[in-house]
């Protein structure tokens, strides 16, 4: 179970640094961290400086929180997230979401790079997440439930807000950006799927597959936040095209859709 005290300690540390309550939280996926560079009057806080935040076990920087304004709204963004495949428990993976909630965030925009399962998709597409399949074999809420954080058995029938999806679709229309919509499958990684696994996930109803997002969204819903999810289809999943998957391709594609992604998310925030 999450220790409320640790949430409070991180939150109080951050509140002292922030002049106002952030209303919108952003989790930025692989290659999509550039959105945080657009935040005005930014206050940047490396994760390792935040007491009780998960510590990076690998060398290099795990990432940072970026607080400030985006289109007039007060936001807090995670530039870099914690992944299950890195060895963090799901409690640690989702800890920043608990802190965002405690800070006052009511709407969470979650982004990721994902592999396309739906054969009508192509690399470079943006996909609104309509729903997800938790294929991680575990759940961040396992353990004793703290009633102050949410109910024991949270409803997941509208994990991704219908209202926010409608708003996102009207924004895409207006900007002339074409978007897909579909079901995101959360796998643990770090190996990519085999072609047989991709066929199985397609039969299961998946449209895209990645290694994140599902735990964070479960915790966001447990804590009563509204969620909008956006996947950048960085590549087609294994076995669809006759080519191997590389992380370089993931980064290269996100580089190419950056401009669309930025204007899309910024305009959604403007409309919130
Ligand atoms: Cl093909 N699979 C998974 N699990 N994650 C990905 C991906 C594929 N492409 C980008 N991220």
From TrEMBL:
Domain of life the protein comes from: Bacteria
Molecular function GO labels: purine-nucleoside phosphorylase activity
Residue numbers binding phosphate: 30, 61, 81-83, 113, 212
EC number: 2.4.2.1
Enzyme class, first EC level, given as a word: transferase
Pfam families reported in the protein's UniProt record: PNP_UDP_1 (PF01048)
Catalytic activity field: a purine 2'-deoxy-D-ribonucleoside + phosphate = a purine nucleobase + 2-deoxy-alpha-D-ribose 1-phosphate
Classification via Gene3D superfamilies: Nucleoside phosphorylase domain
Keyword Transferase: yes
UniProt pathway annotation: Purine metabolism; purine nucleoside salvage
The UniProt record lists the keyword Glycosyltransferase: yes
GO cellular component, one term: cytoplasm
Coiled coil (UniProt feature): none
Gene Ontology BP, a term: nucleoside metabolic process
Parts of the chain that traverse the membrane: none
Nucleoside phosphorylase domain segment(s): 24-269
Keywords recorded for this protein, A-Z: Glycosyltransferase, Phosphoprotein, Transferase
Residues engaged in binding a purine D-ribonucleoside: 193, 235
Summary of the function given for this chain in its UniProt record: The purine nucleoside phosphorylases catalyze the phosphorolytic breakdown of the N-glycosidic bond in the beta-(deoxy)ribonucleoside molecules, with the formation of the corresponding free purine bases and pentose-1-phosphate. Cleaves guanosine, inosine, 2'-deoxyguanosine and 2'-deoxyinosine.
Family: Belongs to the PNP/MTAP phosphorylase family.
Assembly, per entry: Homotrimer.
Protein name, as recorded: Purine nucleoside phosphorylase
């Amino acid at each position: 179970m999450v220790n409320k005290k640790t949430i409070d300690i991180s939150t109080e540390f951050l509140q002292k640094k922030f002049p106002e309550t952030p209303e919108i939280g952003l989790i930025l996926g692989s290659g999509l961290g550039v959105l945080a560079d657009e935040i005005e009057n930014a206050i940047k806080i490396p994760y390792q400086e935040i007491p009780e935040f998960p510590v990076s076990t690998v060398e290099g920087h795990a990432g940072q929180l970026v607080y400030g304004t985006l289109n007039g709204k007060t936001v807090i963004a995670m530039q870099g997230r914690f992944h299950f495949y890195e060895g963090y428990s799901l409690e640690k993976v989702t800890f920043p979401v608990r802190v965002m909630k405690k800070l006052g965030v009511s709407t969470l925009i979650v982004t990721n790079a994902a592999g396309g399962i739906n054969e009508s998709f192509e690399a470079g597409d943006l996909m609104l997440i309509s729903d997800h399949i938790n294929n991680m074999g575990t759940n961040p809420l396992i353990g004793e439930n703290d009633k102050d954080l949410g109910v024991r058995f949270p409803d997941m029938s509208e994990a991704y807000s219908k209202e926010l999806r409608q708003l996102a679709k009207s924004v895409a229309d207006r900007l002339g950006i074409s978007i897909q919509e579909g079901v995101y499958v959360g796998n643990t990684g770090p190996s990519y799927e085999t072609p047989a696994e991709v066929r199985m996930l397609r039969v299961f109803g998946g449209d895209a597959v990645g290694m994140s997002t599902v735990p964070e969204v479960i915790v966001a819903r447990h804590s009563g936040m509204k969620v909008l999810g956006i996947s950048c289809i960085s590549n087609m999943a294994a076995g669809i095209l006759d080519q191997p998957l590389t992380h370089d391709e993931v980064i290269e594609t996100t580089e190419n859709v950056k401009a669309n992604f930025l204007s899309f998310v910024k305009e959604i925030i403007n409309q919130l």
